[in-house]
UniProtKB/TrEMBL annotation:
Domain of life: Eukaryota
GO BP terms: rRNA base methylation; tRNA methylation
Protein name (Swiss-Prot/TrEMBL): Radical SAM core domain-containing protein
InterPro entries: Aldolase_TIM, Methyltransferase_A, RNA_MTrfase_RlmN, rSAM, rSAM_sf
UniProt keyword annotations, A-Z: 4Fe-4S, Iron, Iron-sulfur, Metal-binding, S-adenosyl-L-methionine
GO molecular function (one): catalytic activity
Keyword Iron-sulfur listed: yes
Length: 286
């Protein structure tokens, strides 16, 4: 069963993840957490506020770029295994309508894709970042190129956040909307998705109502998401009006009957008061 296989792959993802020391990213931490880090490394608390500004306002990409932080503090950060948590752009391509696709090269040399979509909304410029939640995807929907490439690992929270920063730097414009609709199934990496969602909201000041979390449907996860009572839209990749057809397009649907999925969507609305949208991919059939 594809979904059962996906869940097994998720449990193996930690084995493919980078070493523990490489996970110590400053990106994703709150100001209180950065203040505590400064104190733990023998500095005064206000140095943590400086770290916060350097990471989120100045957009420094390496600890060595922390110009107004004492050298001894920079060395202590590096010695303790901390880095900013930013990845270099491996490749970028822009379409005629301005949509830009960016490949980031992660610290384990894997590639992840993010897309910036500029829109002029009746004279008001809007920039949407479409972010990935996994490297690859284990669900293998029939129409999706990502699934055909296999699944490597879950992204960490800061690896999701940095995609938004990369889009902003490419467009030199603030991201106004975020959709978790890139590579991977967000509900199979819900912990990191929620961490990224909180960081984008609290640290980058992107409103919860300006974010959408997409899913093809994973049992018992929509209710978990609803329990957090986020003010974000849930987008369900439906792709078919009945269970039989949906199973041919989305193999994981065999473990999640359409009726149960619709019940969970209804409960999400009742729990959060936020709308649920349904997505279709138009496919040609012989």
């Amino acid at each position: 069963v594809p979904l059962a296989r996906a869940l097994r792959l998720r449990t193996r993802a930690s084995a493919a993840a980078p070493p523990e020391t490489s996970r110590r990213a400053l990106l994703g931490l709150t100001e209180p957490e950065l203040r505590q880090l400064a104190v733990d490394l023998g500095q005064q608390s206000y140095r943590g506020k400086q770290l916060h500004d350097l990471v989120y306002k100045n957009r420094a990409k390496q600890v060595e770029e922390f110009a107004y932080v004492p050298k001894v503090f920079r060395e202590a950060l590096v010695g303790a295994g901390w880095n900013v948590g930013r990845s270099p752009v491996h490749h970028a391509v822009t379409a005629t309508d301005g949509t830009t696709k960016i490949l980031l090269k992660l610290e384990d040399n894997r590639l992840v894709e993010t897309v910036g979509i500029p829109v002029d909304d009746r004279g008001t410029p809007r920039l949407t970042a479409c972010v990935s939640s996994q490297v690859g995807c284990p669900l293998r929907c029939s129409f999706c190129a990502t699934g055909k490439g296999g699944f490597a690992r879950n992204l960490k929270g800061h690896e999701i956040v940095e995609q938004v920063l990369a889009i902003e730097e490419s467009f030199k414009h603030r991201v106004t909307n975020v959709v978790f609709m890139g590579m991977g199934e967000p509900m199979l990496n819900l912990k990191a998705v929620l961490e990224a969602h909180q960081c984008l909201n609290k640290e980058l000041k992107i409103g919860q109502r300006m974010m959408t979390i997409s899913t093809v449907g994973v049992p018992n996860t929509i209710s978990k998401l609803a329990s957090h009572k986020l003010q974000s839209t849930l987008a369900v990749s439906l792709h078919a009006p009945n269970q039989r057809l949906r199973e041919t397009i989305v193999p994981s649907a065999k473990a999640y009957p359409l009726e149960a999925l619709m019940d969970d969507c209804k409960n999400y609305f009742l729990e959060t008061g936020r709308r649920v949208s349904f997505e279709y991919t138009l496919l040609g059939w012989d």
